[in-house]
Amino acid sequence: MHDDTLKRWQHPHTFGQDVRRTAESRTLIVVALTTVMMGAEIAAGLLFGSMALLADGLHMASHAVALGINLYAYGYARRHAVDTRFSFGTGKVNALGGYTGAILLATFAGLMAWESGQRLFHPTAIAFDQAILVAIIGLAVNGASVFMLGQAGRSKEHHGQGHGGEHHDHNLRSAYLHVLADALTSILAIAALLSAKYMGLLWMDPAMGIVGAILVARWSFGLVRSSSTILLDQQAPTDVSDAIRTIIEADHESRVADLHVWAIGPDTYAVIITIVARNPLSPEHYKALLPNSLGLEHITIEVCRSEFGT
């Protein structure tokens, strides 16, 4: 059989990963903003002799590294989208970036809790005016970053192929949680610094650090769970599987004997279906029944004849 004849049954495995995403461009801007703010806080901490500012600057540096990983994941997936070594494309790089970011986020939460615990028992002097000013600037930068990445997520929701309102760009989710954690840290820091300056509640600074660490840890563990399901090829959401089964069995003659649906990218699924029927139709017939809205990009159908009916 000539190679040109085979092209009818062949298809690319990029699944949209070769296109530069809005989320990637916005993550790049956020990395730049975070890096600039990080440098400003570290410089201010050294200039004003404030350990609080220096520590927050180093904290932002760690988040800049994590966001850099998210940005690298987008670029890697796009550059290697046509690499045939990836059986189902590079969509899972997205989940891997999100998983790595979540692990780093949990690590940062642990460090925040440890440092806050140390300061709770061993308070350090704080340059309140400078620390409050820089914290407010940091909140503005982080707020802008949260808005940009949040808009990118909502853009996927309105234009992507969602299922039951769930959207699975784990890499974007990881970047979003990192900047959200920074914004939360800034809010808690401002509240704590104001309380310490005007009410003498010096313990508020480390106490708010512990509260923030607990919230960040909860976010990170949630992202670890959701991204690991993709990396471990767990079955797709039940609404996708149920929809496939309902569509195939609607003729009351065909039965789905075996069904495997797993994510190979954000809201993109591969599926293997074994269909049993007494008078089976062609695989092309069953494939044509499945709507594009389910996000099924790689469909393999096995059709078996049942001698004893269905």
Please characterize this protein's 3D structure.
The protein is mainly α and 310 residues long. The chain folds into two domains: 3-231, Alpha-lytic protease prodomain-like (Up-down Bundle); 238-305, Cation efflux protein, cytoplasmic domain (Alpha-Beta Plaits, 2-Layer Sandwich). It is built from nine helices and three strands, in the order ααααααααββαβ. It has helices spanning 3-6, 22-48, 51-79, 91-121, 128-159, 170-199, 204-231, 238-248, 283-289, and strands at 254-265, 268-277, 296-305. The protein has a three-stranded mixed beta sheet with strand order 1-2-3. Mean pLDDT is 79; it is low at 157-166.
Topology of this protein?
Elements: H1 3-6, H2 22-48, H3 51-79, H4 91-121, H5 128-159, H6 170-199, H7 204-231, H8 238-248, E1 254-265, E2 268-277, H9 283-289, E3 296-305
Parallel strand pairs: 2-3
Antiparallel strand pairs: 1-2
Helix pairs in contact: 2-3, 2-5, 3-4, 3-6, 4-6, 4-7, 5-6, 6-7
